[in-house]
Amino acid sequence: MRLSVAAAISHGRVYRRLGLSPRSRLDLLRNLVTALVRYERIETPWARADEMRGYAERLIDHAKRGDKDERAMRMADFWLTEKDLIHKLFKVLAPRFQPHAGSYTRLLQIPSRDGLDRAKMAVIELKGNPLPPLARPRRLSDKTLLNQLLRGYRQDARPRGTPV
Amino acid sequence: MAAACGRLVPRGAGIALPGRCFSLSGYRVSSGGKPPKFQPPPKPVIMDRKTRKEESRFLSPEFIPPRGRTDPLKYYIERKDMIQRRKVFNIPEFYVGSVLAVTTANPYASDKSNRFVGICIQRGGKGLGATFVLRNVIEDQGVEMCYELYSPRVQAIEVLKLEKRLDENLMYLRDALPEYSTFDVNMKPVPRQDHEEIPVNKVQVRMKPKPWSKRWERPKYNIKGIKFELPEHKMQAAQKWSQPWLEFDMLREYDTSKIEEKIRKELSEELGK
């Protein structure tokens, strides 16, 4: 029988449970953030990439404050396990994203992992990276033939102005 | 010579050298014999009092909406109602650790109202349901009363002593010696200048022997206002429950500066009308 109803309900919980414990979850995400800052595009399970995205963007927000800021340096020191990446974060990534207000990362789903678990995989990359571009889903633009024809139809169907 | 200079200050206007003709910038051209009206020099504006007031204006914590998925319209409507109530009834600025006296309406009391004096140990709730808990020890019995700030039953809230403490939550006073929670019911309000900074009372409270209602020595409560007289090994054992990674968990931070600015502007507009 179910001993505690409350333990099974998770309404409004925003943090996923990864790894062995909350400490382990943060360590996992820390490794992923370090890898993202080093390689600028990584392939991981979708859940981990989604959790990591928030932390990566907040880290860049902290870095934008500059390396003289005490809090920014402590955050970068904790989150980047390879200490040469702290320099890259403050000197390369922060100036690159200075003009942008937010959303420095892109998350795209890729076919599931080949192994036994068939995990839902995703690729997460920092925008403006020097690697060749990914195949992003193109939204229908105004220039397609169908959209042009529909636009013309709408213009014709609109009631004309007062004839002279 | 007096008649020669048209722009002359007439004799007896307070200048040490009578009859000398010189024009001063502060004096108007006097037509005819009428003495110009005495204009006192402009009062110097004390800038630091004004600027200090602008920076450290107090925003009551129940105005700041919590993080969540509720529609901001709900908090906007509540804020309008809160402002309406504040226009009619004065809710003073107070913090956890200040001593307040609250009179509420009570139909069964002889003079229809009920006064309670106590130290504010907790301020909870957001919006119209904001509450504060006052604690006092009356005839050796600890009493805590929880009042709603915006309830129509409260008739007056008076701040007897405005001060802050080292913690945001003084629930540990329940396990502290009763002398730290006793306050005279007929206490007179402590006078205070407007521009002074809010004093922080750094008192370290002594506790009754354990067991306590909560294990206050654990780092989760992060209490700075208790003088722990526990043995060293117990304090070390309590640190086992510390979570040092929590301060680096960036998604738990809630930056309220922009929200506060907007709400401050809204409040000053509405209350200024």
Automatic annotation (TrEMBL), chain A:
Subcellular location: Mitochondrion
Transmembrane segments: none
Alphabetized InterPro entries for the sequence: Ribosomal_bL17, Ribosomal_bL17_sf
Record-level Gene Ontology MF annotations: structural constituent of ribosome
GO BP terms, alphabetized: translation
GO CC annotations on file: mitochondrial large ribosomal subunit
Major localisation: mitochondrion
Keywords assigned by UniProt, alphabetized: Mitochondrion, Ribonucleoprotein, Ribosomal protein, Transit peptide
Family: Belongs to the bacterial ribosomal protein bL17 family.
UniProt cross-references to PANTHER family, sorted A to Z: LARGE RIBOSOMAL SUBUNIT PROTEIN BL17M (PTHR14413:SF16), RIBOSOMAL PROTEIN L17 (PTHR14413)
NCBIfam families for the chain: L17
Name listed for the protein in its UniProt record: Large ribosomal subunit protein bL17m
Protein species of origin: Chloebia gouldiae
UniProtKB/TrEMBL annotation, chain B:
Entry's Gene Ontology BP terms: translation
GO cellular component, one term: mitochondrial large ribosomal subunit
InterPro entries per UniProt: Ribosomal_bL19, Ribosomal_bL19_sf, Translation_prot_SH3-like_sf
Signal peptide: none
Keyword Ribonucleoprotein: yes
Keyword field: Mitochondrion, Ribonucleoprotein, Ribosomal protein, Transit peptide
Pfam families (alphabetical): Ribosomal_L19
UniProt-recorded Gene Ontology molecular function terms: structural constituent of ribosome
Taxonomy, superkingdom: Eukaryota
Cell location: Mitochondrion
Primary location recorded for the protein, binned into one broad class: mitochondrion
Family label: Belongs to the bacterial ribosomal protein bL19 family.
PANTHER family assigned to the protein according to its UniProt record, in alphabetical order: LARGE RIBOSOMAL SUBUNIT PROTEIN BL19M, RIBOSOMAL PROTEIN L19
Protein name: Large ribosomal subunit protein bL19m
Organism: Chloebia gouldiae (Gouldian finch)
